[in-house]
């Protein structure tokens, strides 16, 4: 019976996923999928904690987080056949909440409409090949600066949620009291996560969040009442996006930021995972690249329809690759586990901000790894990268940091006589950013 099952059912799947060519097997792929899930399962707790601050119903966004991650990872595994898992992206969820909804006073339904439009834009530009032009136009050093700047942005939010960074009338920000329960819980969680990371314990972030939550409950710092959850909780967010509102409020800039960061997050993760897995072709191209980008864009559209911010590829997928994952089966297994995780939605409220804050700090610190890719000895590169890196957290806006970086790059290269005709799209983007800042400055 087992022989016939393998011959008529598993064998065709092994051929489709190229098991022989990749030197993998079912056991390895399944274990790799579980490993990837353990390293990124923290998003089930952290993403709802962030988005609920913008007014998105907690139980609903928890279910939407799980469902969108499940759909996206399974789609990536089946369609693109890569061991890349996806979920609502860190950084973009913070931008969605703290910049778009809270700072700009945009309703979360309208913000979801902007996320939907960014996914449609990504899909259209992928289909037409324009995204290749955009990828070539943005200098790699600015991409590295954006990634590091987002890391600082996330970490700053984590420190604030922990009560370690507070507002100060004289210096804008200052150090909060480390004697408060919130700060103590966050520092405990951060220390535990770092120790587990050093010891290479899989799921270190999730373990830290859960341990910090347990400590918060022991100290009486959590006030929670059960809420409806599961698939039926999605009724509060599913198809609640306001696309017309996104158009009428002129959120083109926000749509562009969602699109841009998703595009380059996906590219960075793609390079990291394929390099680690040895999946890059001899000519340095990535096979089935369009399929990967199609899957990513479709995932963002699906996520906005269910009620969550931009869905993107996760660099934690490298953990599954390190465990031996080479095919799309790894991503499929991860997706199935996210589907099962919808059952935890009723309990998402038991996790306080003090428990998720260390996850934001740790993930933010990990994102600073790209800073070494910047040539700091060259002012033409260092100044635009520095402006991008610093202004993202200081202005609480990815758009502001990116805009200043692109403008500075264009001006400095023009002044130094280093402008090239093939960089016309970069200068076009710089002009658009400049008009945006001038418009804001006079409005």
Secondary structure blueprint with pairings:
Blueprint: H1 2-16, H2 19-22, H3 26-40, H4 43-51, H5 58-80, E1 86-88, H6 92-103, H7 108-128, H8 130-137, H9 140-162, E2 165-168, E3 172-175, H10 181-198, H11 204-218, H12 243-248, H13 252-277, H14 289-306, E4 311-313, H15 317-322, H16 328-340, H17 353-366, H18 379-394, H19 398-415, H20 424-442
Helix pairs in contact: 3-16, 4-5, 5-14, 5-16, 7-13, 7-14, 9-17, 9-18, 9-19, 10-11, 10-17, 11-17, 18-19, 19-20
Keywords:
globular, 443 residues, mainly alpha, two-stranded antiparallel sheet, 20 helices, two-stranded antiparallel ribbon, 3% strand
Structure report:
With 443 residues, the chain is mostly helical. Among the domains are: 26-139 and 225-348, no CATH class; 374-443, no CATH class. It contains 20 helices and four strands. Strand 2 and strand 3 (172-175) form a beta hairpin. Helix 9 (140-162) packs antiparallel against helix 17 (353-366) and helix 10 packs antiparallel against helix 11 (204-218). The chain starts with a helix and ends with a helix. The model has no long low-confidence stretch (mean pLDDT 84).
Brief account:
By secondary structure, this protein is mainly alpha-helical.
Strand order of the largest sheet: 1-4
Give the fraction of residues assigned to helices: 55-70%
Q: What is the 3D shape?
A: globular
Biggest β-sheet strands, sense, barrel = 2 strands, antiparallel
Rounded to an integer in angstroms, the radius of gyration calculated over CA atoms is 22 Å
- Tally of DSSP β-strands: 4
- What order do the helices and strands follow? HHHHHEHHHHEEHHHHHEHHHHHH
**Number of helical segments?**
20
Mean pLDDT: 84
Class derived from helix and strand content: mainly alpha
Query: Which segments are poorly predicted (pLDDT under 50) over 5 or more consecutive residues?
Result: none
Question: What fraction of residues sit in β-strands?
Answer: under 5%
Distance between the termini: 74 Å
């Amino acid at each position: 019976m087992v022989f016939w099952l393998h011959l008529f059912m598993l064998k065709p799947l092994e051929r489709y996923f190229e098991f022989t060519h990749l030197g993998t097997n079912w056991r390895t792929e399944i274990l790799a999928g579980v490993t990837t899930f353990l390293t990124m399962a923290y998003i089930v707790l952290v993403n709802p904690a962030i988005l609920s601050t913008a007014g998105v119903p907690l139980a609903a966004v928890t279910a939407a987080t799980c469902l969108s991650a499940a759909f996206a990872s399974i789609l990536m595994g089946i369609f693109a056949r890569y061991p890349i898992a996806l979920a609502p992206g860190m950084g973009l969820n913070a931008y969605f909440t703290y910049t778009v909804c809270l700072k700009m006073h945009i309703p979360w339904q309208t913000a979801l409409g902007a996320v939907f439009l960014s996914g449609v834009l990504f899909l259209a530009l992928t289909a037409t090949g324009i995204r290749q032009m955009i990828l070539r136009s943005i200098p790699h050093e600015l991409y590295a600066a954006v990634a590091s700047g987002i890391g600082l942005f996330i970490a700053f939010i984590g420190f604030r949620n922990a009560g370690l960074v507070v507002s100060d009338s004289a210096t804008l920000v200052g150090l909060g009291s480390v004697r408060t329960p919130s700060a103590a819980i966050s520092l405990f969680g951060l220390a535990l996560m770092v120790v587990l990371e050093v010891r290479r314990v899989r799921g270190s972030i999730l373990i830290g969040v859960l341990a910090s939550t347990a400590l918060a409950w022991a100290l009486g710092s959590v006030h929670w009442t059960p809420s409806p959850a599961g698939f039926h909780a999605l009724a509060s967010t599913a198809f609640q996006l306001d696309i017309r509102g996104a158009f009428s409020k002129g959120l083109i800039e926000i749509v562009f930021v969602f699109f841009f960061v998703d595009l380059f997050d996906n590219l960075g993760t793609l390079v990291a995972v394929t390099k680690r897995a040895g999946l890059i072709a001899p000519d340095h191209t990535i096979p089935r690249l369009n399929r990967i980008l199609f899957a990513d864009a479709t995932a963002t559209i699906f996520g906005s329809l269910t009620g969550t911010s931009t869905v993107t590829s996760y660099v934690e997928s490298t953990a599954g690759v390190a465990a031996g994952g080479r095919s799309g089966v790894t991503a499929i297994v991860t997706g199935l586990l996210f589907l099962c995780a919808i059952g935890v939605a009723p309990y998402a409220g038991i996790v306080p901000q003090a428990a998720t804050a260390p996850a934001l700090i740790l993930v933010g610190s990990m994102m600073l790894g790209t800073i070494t890719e910047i040539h700091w000895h060259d002012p033409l590169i260092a100044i635009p990268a520095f402006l991008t890196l610093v202004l993202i957290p200081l202005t609480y806006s990815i758009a502001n940091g990116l805009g200043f970086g692109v403008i500075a790059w264009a001006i400095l290269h023009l002044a130094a006589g280093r402008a090239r005709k093939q960089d016309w799209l970069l200068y076009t983007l710089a002009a658009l950013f400049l008009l945006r800042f001038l418009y804001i400055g006079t409005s």
